[in-house]
Design a protein that fits this description.
The chain starts with a strand and ends with a helix. The longest helix is centred in the C-terminal third of the chain and has 14 residues. The chain has seven helices and twelve strands. It is 30% helix and 26% strand. It has one domain: Spore Coat Polysaccharide Biosynthesis Protein SpsA, Chain A (Alpha-Beta Complex), CATH 3.90.550.10. With 233 residues, the chain is an alpha/beta fold. Strands 1, 2, 5, 6, 7, 8, 11 and 12 form an eight-stranded mixed β-sheet that branches. The structure holds cytidine-5'-triphosphate and the ligand C[C@](O)(CO)[C@H](O)COP(=O)(O)O. The site of cytidine-5'-triphosphate (CTP) has 22 residues, from strand 2 and helix 3.
């Protein structure tokens, strides 16, 4: 339930932002509550962290607190379920304030990414002993185009330097708290947690993950996830 950082056992807290409304998914039910091969997405995601021997506590930012409590409130290591915010960033901040005091390692993982593997999770948590900020990511396989508002291609970045960020994103707690405070002071809103840390100058490293750790955003993602699980759990 902790990581050895220079001989000191540092507990690991996990934040699960699970307060989204699933606009891009459509339908009336928030996607984190939808079944994926019979098991709600949220249960799959939280269960992975409950079973991880390196995790000390789980804090969930929820939109529907009652449904969230019913689904995962009983799972091991679920310490607190707090109200989320209007944005993912606000939800993470709400959960971060509910994390026990420092020093800690904090891993932030989207509820909408239920296909994370134990191997990647344990690998990035162990790497956090050496690095203050880590992003699970995969190298981009397609050629990426930068496009203006008129649909004109304005640049083709060198693909060798491009990685697609996923979650978990793992940080030394004080680094993350400072980054969130700076972002709020500056009115900065990022689409991930690492972008807040990057702007503070703290070095952020990628940890190579797996392409299968997709975020369930649209119905097509659900179909892909169902197919991926067809042969597995
Ligand atoms: N106000 C918000 C918005 C998002 N999230 C969470 O952040 C993760 C990634 O967000 P996303 O995939 O965008 O989920 P939604 O915001 O629900 O999707 P959409 O943007 O299509 O509405 C999800 O686990 C989602 O529940 C959150 O906790 N609080
Ligand atoms: C955090 C994230 O999953 C990294 O790829 C992504 O930025 C979340 O974006 P969303 O629009 O909140 O789903």
């Amino acid at each position: 339930m902790s990581i050895d950082v220079g001989g000191v056992q540092v507990p690991v807290s996990v934040i699960i932002p699970a307060a989204g409304t699933g606009t891009r998914m459509g339908g009336g039910t928030a996607k984190q509550f939808l079944p994926l091969r019979g098991e709600p997405v949220l249960v799959r995601t939280v269960g992975l962290f409950s079973r991880c021997p390196l995790v000390d506590e789980i804090v969930i930012a929820a939109g529907n607190l009652e449904t969230t409590r019913q689904l995962v409130g009983h799972l091991p290591k679920v310490a607190r379920i707090v109200p989320g915010g209007q944005t993912r960033q606000e939800s993470v901040w709400a959960a971060l304030q509910a994390v026990h005091s420092r020093p800690r390692i904090v891993a932030v993982h989207d509820a909408a990414r239920p296909l994370l593997t134990p191997e990647v999770l344990e690998g990035v948590l162990c790497a956090a002993a050496l690095h203050p900020a880590l992003v699970v990511a995969v190298p981009v396989q397609d050629t990426i185009k930068q496009v203006d508002d008129e649909g004109r291609v304005v640049a083709t970045p060198d693909r060798r330097a491009l990685w697609a960020a996923q979650t978990p994103q793992v940080f030394w707690a004080d680094v993350l708290v400072r980054a969130f405070r700076q972002a709020m002071a500056d009115g900065f809103s990022g689409t991930d947690d690492a972008s807040l840390v990057e702007r503070t100058g703290v070095p952020v490293r990628v940890f190579r993950g797996e392409p299968g750790n997709i975020k369930l955003t649209t119905p097509a993602d659900f179909r892909a996830a169902e197919a991926a699980l067809e042969g597995g759990a």
